[in-house]
Amino acid sequence: MTTPSSGPSSFTACIIIIGNEILSGRTQDTNVAWLAKELNELGIRVEEVRVIPDVEQTIIDTVNTCRKQFTYIFTTGGIGPTHDDITSACIAKAFGAALKQHQEAAAILERHYGPTNLNSARMKMAEIPVGGTLIANPVSAAPGFQIENVYVMAGVPEIMRAMFDSCKHTLKGGDKTLSRTVSAFVTEGMFAQKLTAIAQRHPDVDIGSYPFQRSAGLGTSLVARATDEAALEAAYREVKAMLMAYTPEVIEDDLAA
Question: What is the pTM (predicted TM-score) of this model?
Fold first, then answer.
């Protein structure tokens, strides 16, 4: 497990999306954007996202690599009742732990489904790696789980969000990343060199340039991000002034959406 060091950027996360349906294009992922925003509110910076198939060795290798590099790992997908839901078993193998029926998880499923509707496929969702602790699922009962710095959650957005809300109080973060956005109908090629100079003058501020096209024409949204509010505002003022040198019609918002 990664040990956080001092400083605002010490708390990092990697999101691992598991599922052939995402890679095939059949299902569009919406979990990353939501999770990244929620984690930022807690002072945890998402530094990497990986999308991987329902392949045992790929899951094991990815989890083992990432859990050593980031403070937290969040996986989504593959913990349901069907044959291709192999995430729990793979996480167990990644940690060298046995996969066993968790008594509390089994009791939760028994209460939820009742004796008539509880079958072996559904009971599969009570199998948790030894050493794991449950993540409550107030939507559909079947829990996720946490083992060390790895949080294993469902892929269905509504369920994943409920699971995250159930466990986010256990997360420790640093300073929240703040942002300011300014947009204008000015293309990147016009100001690229000036923007580079601004970025060099403000090394503690992440400045991103995002071109867009709307009915009114081509333009760019410039987003400044930092944990220090004073540093952020200083960089933002320069970025805004740079755009206003080309057009007075700047908008303090993101037109790219």
Answer: 0.86
Alpha helices (H) along the chain:
20-23, 31-41, 56-66, 87-95, 103-117, 120-123, 157-167, 188-201, 229-244
Query: 10: helix, coil or strand?
Result: coil
Phi and psi angles of residue 196, each rounded to the nearest 5 degrees, phi first: -60, -40
Question: Which among 153, 170, 187 is the end of a domain?
Answer: 170
Tokens of 224: 């400044």
> Strand pairing partners for 48?
14
- The predicted-structure confidence for 163-180, as pLDDT tens digits, reads as follows 999 999 999 999 989 999
Q: Torsion over CA of 164, 168, 170 and 176, rounded to 10 degrees? A: 140
Q: Is residue 119 part of a domain?
A: yes
Q: Are residues 138 and 159 in the same domain?
A: yes
| Tokens (6 digits) for 114 | 């009742």
